[in-house]
Write a structure and sequence with these properties.
Length: 191
């Protein structure tokens, strides 16, 4: 009798362990599915973040190039040169955009995804997904660029008097520093 009870207890324990393991695997699979859903809902923002990284680098490159143009290019060719540089930067960004978007989504799973999986329960992930997929949240996200543009314009208008003179002074100092670093022009040969 004791051995039958022992076998039943062992069988019950084995079923419990298998069921618990299957439940844990099911919860992990559910978490992964919810994280994928959240990342899909956040895809436009994730992709824009990657593009913004490249834009920031390109803007800095253009600022540096502008300083050189201002210092070295004859005045009558500066505007055309600056427009050409901006065109080149825009073309490069357009070419890079698919690569940036793909990389952002590839790495979103390991960065965002792993954080979501480790820090949030299945119930919390369901709630996040529900909020992100709601029509109200979609409309809010679509209004984001318009709201940001309005804020940027308001800040620009409000600070124009303080910012423009400071930027002009900074620009003059940068030009002075570049010019001071340039080698002197070659001496003209005497006849």
């Amino acid at each position: 009798m004791k051995s039958k009870l022992g076998r039943h207890a062992l069988t019950l324990l084995a079923f419990t362990l298998v069921a618990g393991s299957a439940h844990a695997q099911g919860a992990e699979a559910e978490k992964k599915a919810l994280v994928a859903k959240i990342l899909k809902a956040q895809q436009p923002g994730i992709e824009q973040f990657a593009i913004g990284l490249a834009q920031g680098t390109m803007k800095q490159m253009l600022r540096n190039a502008e300083q050189v143009v201002t210092a070295r290019v004859p005045a009558d060719k500066r505007e055309a040169t600056a427009k050409a540089m901006v065109g080149e930067a825009q073309a490069a960004l357009k070419d890079l955009t698919p690569t940036l978007k793909a990389s952002a989504m590839k790495h979103a799973q390991t960065s965002f995804g792993s954080t979501l999986e480790s820090k949030f329960s299945v119930a919390e992930l369901k709630e996040i997904a529900q909020v992100l997929e709601s029509p109200t949240m979609r409309r809010f996200n679509q209004a984001g660029p318009e709201m940001q543009q309005a804020l940027a314009q308001a800040i620009a208008n409000d600070t124009k008097g303080a910012v423009e003179p400071r930027l002009k002074a900074l620009d003059q100092k940068l030009v002075h520093l570049v010019n001071a670093a340039l080698p002197p022009p070659p001496a003209s040969p005497e006849s």
